[in-house]
Amino acid sequence: MAPSYKPVPLVGAAFSSNSRTGGSVPAAFDTFLYQPTGGFKHVKLTIKLKISLKQVRGFLPVQLDADNKPFLTTPWTDAQWSAFVNSASAQANLWNNRFWLVPPPAFSGLDEVYQKDPFFNKFPNKIFRPNLLCALEVDFSPASGAHRTIEVTNLNAAFITATGRVPDPGVFRSHAFLYDSFDATPWAFPLGHAPGMPASHPVIAHEIGHAIGLDHIGVLTKAPICQLAANLNTANVDRYLPAGSPLAGGTNALVCYGSTNAALAGNIMGAGQAFSSDNARPWLWALYTLLDKLLDKPEPITEKAKWRVVMTDPGPGRWIDNGLDIITSDPGPVRVSANDDSLIRISGDVLFDTDKSNIKPEANAALEKAAADIKARIGPRLRYVLINGHTDARGSADYNQRLSEARAKAAADWFVTRKYLERAKIRTQGFGKTQPLSPNTDEPGRAKNRRVELHIVNS
Asked: Do residues 373 and 344 touch, judged by C-beta distance below 8 A?
């Protein structure tokens, strides 16, 4: 059963992206911290976004899209409008249960101290330090105070068909302040059905990402080719590029959606529907704003930056006794030693193809053996199995970090779907290229560094 939260927030604030930098686009929303009704649960960090959707009711039944192409429209019926709003709400909900925030070891601003509860007599002065669950609530029919207003046009599907075009979401190009009726259906936007590119993209969920301050994934990750497109636009020379060039358009260029990088293209702020830790930035901005109000003495940004984003539930928090962790639901960054008998190491080349995070079919034998080893080594009180992903040094630090996280999660999913481990008993981490076993100067050394490590943690 999902935890319930107190109706009155612990603290709240209005946020504007103009007060923060770091790859954001102009945005505004409200943010709150909610405590659970019972102890020992996550604290909820909620972003509340109010978007007023308005039906386009122009004098003429014609609407220009983002490329200034004209389209015939038709009035909305009540049933059509209700279905569109419901679909928009469903796409907004895709942002939930994606991110959790783990506090730095020294952060005590949300601690719950227990001194007299008889359950804790064995450990007087125990402290529970909660992790944060990131949540998004979008109100598409606010009574007042909308953060942004978006017009929605109802396209005339019969006219589109009559002109020889397919009446699907690819025909009309919407934007952040103009949606169309076909946006209710995810489709292959904006890269089409190109080989290796995502086959489906929830456009409204993407635009909500912009509404809470996120730019395209190429901007967020500082992809060099996206930075080139931005520089060409700033210098006003991208107008000389050939028509349809993927470099045209500045940060709206197709390369910033990931048109040359399938891993980036798959992101919700690219052209797909996957999420990465880069997409959690609005909750970090929200948290920093709330901490400034919550704490008597605001923390310096260097301390705020120590909060960690994780994409699998790290547990509700950790218990601390006399200042020492005694039970840690979230393992934190753990580096295991090579002679640790609880360590199982699998070559990354056995599990994955180059630059991929999908388990290869031929990797099943190695993973079956690892599952048998885990079973043999599990003690009577297993706390969790920690799965760490590692890469070699080729590629950028950001790219390798994301790849290592995705590979650790893929290995975890393999054990869960085959019922070798429960999801609650797994923790995943990615270390990118930061923990090599061997120099990255030759292929044998790089191959040794590409690996997945499983670390069994018993109580």
From this structure: yes
Check if the beta carbon of residue 117 is closer than 8 Å to that of residue 132.
Answer: no
Nearest Cα neighbor of 104 from 126, 77, 132, 81 is 132
User: In 3D, which of 253, 261, 274 has the Cα closest to residue 209?
Assistant: 274
Rounded to whole angstroms, what are the CA distances from 2 to 38, 41, 42, 44?
A: 12, 10, 11, 12
Helix (H) or strand (E) holding 171: none
Measured distance CA(258)–CA(266) in Å, rounded: 8
Tokens representing 249? 């358009």
Q: How far apart are CA 209 and CA 92, in angstroms?
A: 9
Rounded Cα distance between 118 and 123, Å, is 10
- Asked if 101 and 131 touch (Cβ cutoff 8 Å), the reply is yes
Whether 218 and 201 have beta carbons less than 8 Å apart is answered as no
Which residue has tokens 């901490």? 291
Supply angle C-alpha 57, 58, 61, rounded to 5. Answer: 100
Q: Contact 111/129 with Cβ under 8 angstroms?
A: yes
Taking the CA atoms of 256, 262, 264 and 265 in sequence, report the sign of the dihedral they define. Answer: positive
Which amino acid, one-letter code, is at 256? C
**What is the structure's pLDDT at 336?**
36
Region of 322 please: left (phi>0), alpha (psi -120 to 50) or beta: left
| Reported pTM | 0.69
Q: And the tokens for 168?
A: 């699907």
Among 100, 38, 34, 108, smallest CA distance to 325 is for: 108
The answer to whether 184 touches 87, Cβ cutoff 8 Å, is yes
340-354 pLDDT tens trace: 456 788 998 999 999
What residues are paired with 8 via a beta bridge?
A: none
Residue type, 63: Q
Degrees to nearest 5, angle at CA 449 with 443 and 452 = 135
Number of Cβ within 10 Å of residue 12's Cβ equals 16
Q: What tokens were used for 66?
A: 């983002």
Each residue of 264-291: pLDDT tens digit?
Answer: 999 999 999 999 999 999 999 999 999 8
Share in percent of the chain as helix, strand, coil (round to 5)? 30, 25, 45
CA distance 63 to 60: 8
Q: Which residues, at least 6 apart from 269, have a Cβ–Cβ distance to it below 8 Å?
A: 206, 209, 214, 215, 216, 217, 220, 278, 279
Dihedral sign, Cα of residue 256, residue 262, residue 267, residue 272: positive
| Amino acid making up residue 85 | V
Spatial distance between the Cα atoms of 310 and 319, rounded to a whole number of angstroms = 19
| Residue 376 DSSP class | H
